[in-house]
Amino acid sequence: MKEKRQFSSRSLVLIVICVAINMIAGQMISMLKLPLFLDSIGTVLCAVLAGPWVALFTGLVTNLLWGLLTGPIAAAFAPVAMVIGCVAGVMARAGWFKSFGRVVITGVVITLCLTVVAVPIRTYLFGGATGSGADFVVAYLHAVGEGLQESVAFTVIGINLVDKILTVLIVWVLLRRMPERTRHNFPHMAPIR
Questions:
Q1: How far is C-alpha 49 from the chain's CA centre?
Q2: Which long-range contacts (CB under 8 A, 24 or more apart) does 182-185 make?
Q3: What is the mean pLDDT of residues 27-38?
Q4: How many CB atoms lie within 10 A of CB 24?
Q5: Dist. CA 177–CA 90, nearest whole Å
Q6: % of the chain with per-residue pLDDT over 90
Q7: In this model, does residue 110 exceed pLDDT 70?
Q8: What is the pLDDT of residue 29?
């Protein structure tokens, strides 16, 4: 019953805004071919403001929509986006957005959880190459003698560690600067102080 209440009209508007944030940030990074993603800022924002179920749905919608607009690679990574939303929401509910140190640990936990899902997708569906800036790292590691799965795993962990810590820190800073009256519009918001 609680999950149903979390999908209010306010939550649906938040999902739309957060999907747009994900797509704009992700597209900018993709165009620059940087070895980062920053395509889950909206998902993590949604996780803290509305909870894990709303964030999970935000990640799913982002990647499916992105898949329709840009090709099937983004859609294939929808399970990864869902894991990010769910883990960020659970960590936020457990109080892991209250301090700088806890937020950094949250980024590490998100990375470890998404790695379990992302490595098989990147390795077996795409042979390690997805058209992102991370492809260079995978190709380099594979060229110097690492196996494909190890190259992908090392790249996923390394790049996502930086990416997800940066993502959760951006969200944490944004939320701490959010006016109190705006925060009151999100009754399911996790504590950030």
A1: 15
A2: 185/10
A3: 85
A4: 14
A5: 22
A6: 77
A7: yes
A8: 87
